[in-house]
């Protein structure tokens, strides 16, 4: 069966890592057809807008998108193209795995295997009620948390634990201080957790979570938290396993899902073949999981690990002398 997905090649190093990723997917013969769409600077230059209607229609029609990093121009357009996509398609669950990989420059060579599930549509990133006083001395913004938003993200985390055989969910909050917003989230999380007696649940204040992550990350399995905390924690976790070059992300909603590399566009190395394609390849593996092709997703992850172990054609950030496409071809040869 053939599945059509929307492909956004992105800005900066985006086209290079996307070409590398599609090469591997084609070798795997996963039954995907690609509908290419523009967003970011490329779209602004070609169509005069950052998110053209045709791109939105493509995502809405195909319901699955694979996206390279995008640039949001400073001083115009949306506060963030990624945030705007999450809002428009109600992509409420941001799912960020962090797993130890061999031969990477990281604090923990092994033992890290966790997933951060971040609420993606509410909280500080909703940009609601932003205002600056006339004298420029005071800025305000509304942080809104709802029971519905809290319930569905926590339920997603527990369902993910059941589906993937994970045993523990850590609910991260700041309800000791933020008694209204974080308090509502925590109370809702407790109610949801009670429906999953087969999954261990513990609660942890966000600052302690950060300390525990850098001391004993092996104690975590799935972390579920609110938008701002999840943004910070997921990048911290990427730092534990070698950085954003190995950090994929999935943005999941009821009617659409977008899979991506979470790093930036790195314009300083664009077009030079220096970019590491692993983050987008791992995002593609998340996409295959979402499409029910779990066996092929695991094959892709195993091929990445085997290539890292063999130190075959690795890019410079991983200590090798290969380039973006040679690295991808080495992975494809093992898949």
Automatic annotation (TrEMBL):
Alphabetized Gene3D superfamilies for the sequence: Isopropylmalate Dehydrogenase (3.40.718.10)
Keywords associated with the record: Oxidoreductase
Superkingdom as given in the UniProt entry: Bacteria
A Pfam entry, by short name: Iso_dh
The EC number(s) this enzyme carries: 1.1.1.41
Enzyme class: oxidoreductase
The keyword Oxidoreductase is annotated on this UniProt entry: yes
Biological process terms in GO annotation: isocitrate metabolic process; tricarboxylic acid cycle
Domain named Isopropylmalate dehydrogenase-like: residues: 4-331
A single GO molecular function term of this UniProt record: magnesium ion binding
Family annotation (PANTHER family): DECARBOXYLATING DEHYDROGENASES-ISOCITRATE, ISOPROPYLMALATE, TARTRATE, ISOCITRATE DEHYDROGENASE [NAD] SUBUNIT ALPHA, MITOCHONDRIAL
The family this protein is said to belong to: Belongs to the isocitrate and isopropylmalate dehydrogenases family.
Protein known as: Isocitrate dehydrogenase
Organism annotation: Montanilutibacter psychrotolerans
């Amino acid at each position: 069966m053939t599945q059509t997905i929307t492909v956004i090649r992105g800005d900066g190093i985006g086209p290079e890592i996307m070409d590398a990723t599609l090469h591997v997917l084609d070798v795997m013969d996963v039954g995907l057809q690609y509908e290419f769409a523009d967003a970011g600077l490329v779209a602004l230059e070609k169509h005069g807008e950052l998110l053209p209607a045709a791109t939105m229609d493509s995502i809405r029609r195909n319901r699955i998108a694979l996206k390279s990093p995008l640039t949001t121009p400073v001083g115009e357009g949306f506060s963030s193209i990624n945030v705007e996509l999450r809002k428009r398609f109600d992509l409420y669950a941001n799912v960020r795995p962090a797993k130890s990989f061999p031969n990477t420059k990281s604090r923990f060579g092994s033992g890290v295997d966790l997933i951060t599930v971040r609420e993606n549509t509410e909280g500080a990133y909703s940009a609601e009620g932003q205002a600056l006083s006339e004298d420029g001395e005071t800025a305000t913004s509304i942080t809104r948390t709802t029971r519905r938003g809290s319930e569905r993200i926590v339920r997603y985390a527990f369902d993910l634990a059941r589906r993937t055989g994970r045993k523990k969910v850590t609910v991260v909050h700041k309800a000791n201080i933020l008694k209204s917003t974080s308090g509502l989230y925590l109370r809702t999380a407790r109610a949801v957790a009670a429906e999953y007696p087969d999954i261990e649940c513990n609660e942890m204040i966000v600052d302690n979570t950060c300390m525990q992550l850098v001391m004993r990350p092996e104690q975590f399995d799935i972390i579920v938290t609110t938008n701002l905390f999840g943004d910070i924690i997921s990048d911290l976790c990427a730092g534990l396993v070698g950085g954003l070059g190995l950090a994929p992300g999935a943005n999941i909603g009821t009617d659409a899902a977008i899979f991506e590399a979470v790093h930036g566009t790195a314009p300083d190395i664009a077009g030079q073949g220096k970019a590491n394609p692993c983050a987008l390849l791992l995002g593609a593996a998340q996409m295959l999981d979402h499409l029910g092709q779990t066996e092929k997703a695991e094959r892709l992850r195993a091929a990445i690990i085997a290539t890292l172990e063999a130190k075959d054609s690795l890019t410079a950030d991983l200590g090798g002398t290969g380039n973006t496409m040679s690295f991808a071809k080495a992975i494809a040869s093992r898949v």
